[in-house]
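S2.1 Query sequence (Alginate export)
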Amino acid sequence: MLSRQSVYLAVACLLATAPLRAADTPKATFEWDLRLRHEAVDDAAFAHDAQATTARLRAGVRLALAPGWSALLEGEGVAGSGHYNSGANGKTAYPTVLDPTSAELNQAWIGWSGAQAGVTVGRQRIVLDNQRWVGNVGWRQNEQTFDAVELRWRPTADLTVRYDWLDKVHRVASDRALNPLARERNLDTHLLNVAWTRGAQQWVGYAYLHDDRDVASASTATYGLRWTGSLLHEGRGLGWTAEVARQSDYARNPAHFDHTYWLLEPSWTQAGVTVRAGWEHLGGDGLTAVQTPLATLHAFNGWDDQFLVTPAKGLEDRYLGASGKFGFGTLAGKLNWALTWHDYRSDTGGLHYGSEWNASLGFPLPGGLTGLVKLADYRADAFARNNTKIWLQVEWRGKQTLAR
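Output structure tokens follow.
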């Protein structure tokens, strides 16, 4: 079994064996992502609304050490003001906006990539498929990253095999969260993802053995198969996603369960607009349910984030959505819009949890900036309380090659 000491030893070995000569000067690129956001939350469970204005700067230096060799050192800082519960400021009389003031190391890794194989060791961003099971939670100001070893192998042009061993997850609540378990978790997690791509279709088989060393009840084994594809002709046609998985208790989990997950999402694209219908099922028996603690949860089951933890009775999310681009003159095709309606029900017990509308509009701004207006409106029935969230955001990303 791998340990932290094994990771540090592997990093040292990689550095020692990197084919650098004394006369070599690594090529360096400075990268940054500056994001300013205002989030307003009207939650019927609280007497006060939340108003949070936060700014996030993520910046780092990427080094091209030698052919095939690269490294990244990246920090992240978040500043905030307003009346909201950040998970670190103790303002529990207000709704939660999980963007606490913080400053921490976000990524620090070294890697090698060749024609058919690659390896990355250190603190890194890990994103698998649509991020339903493992992702970086890029929506939150503080990103989720992992202390991990990643191995990649591409034996043919169509087949990609990926294995990740996770030693620790650094969560979005940051290292200043009042709850230590919300800061980070010690793991011994093994992720195997095998993808076969042919044309516009892809089949993915996966086995995710998640061992949470700090919270045993979060440990699960998930095995699944995912199929995505499209039949587009001149920008018009059918698309689809179909996925099925089975999740059971794993490692030291004291519970015993075996739950089913599935997703069906057909779509149709025409005249630059994509319309989709979806049915996502996370099984539950009243005691336990399918959980996805390493996922980019904001991207699923509504932007209002009511279901970051799947209720014990499970979750049925049936939704209809549309998205596309529009614009006129210099903005032609540069305005991105999305609209989705969700209906939430339990897997067992016949409960109607509630429903939700999501809407967003993204647009370019002068100077290479991008803007976003976003809305989530949840209407409760048998789960939680009515809740509305509005976001206004401006972001600036870029990179600059440094002198050698």
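The longest strand covers residues 27-43. The mean pLDDT is 94.
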